[in-house]
Amino acid sequence: MNKLYIEENVNSNDIIKEIAIDNNLSNYVVLKNKNGKPYFKGNDIYFNISNKDNIIVAVTSFNSVGIDIEKLTFKLSIVKHFFSKNEQEIIKKSLNKELDFTTIWVKKEAYLKYLGLDLISIRKIDTTKISGFTIKKYKEYIIGIKE
Asked: What is the pTM of this model?
């Protein structure tokens, strides 16, 4: 991970502009792949953005990267429909279901964004079999980063 950005009450264009300035990118063009993953045209700086409520997070890297932010929560229906058996077992044994649920969910979404896949693929992801995540807490939010 090159740099993590956490901003409140701004929009994604403000964060992208800040990333471009930090990386000395003038006259930059942002494009998106077929699933909406943003990238700078003709540049080796990778970035990804996520938002929840009034908070936007972004991360830059010299490799593919994905990020997600979610407010601490627990939703049993999502566990039953979208979590792998291994992930469901973690939730079943959990002493802090909100923290463990949210951590697994941000890992899933960050991994999707890392690969540049759409949300439909989330059921196929088992985060217990994937390494390389960074988890950060910000207020009552969990941030997951996959690089």
From this structure: 0.94
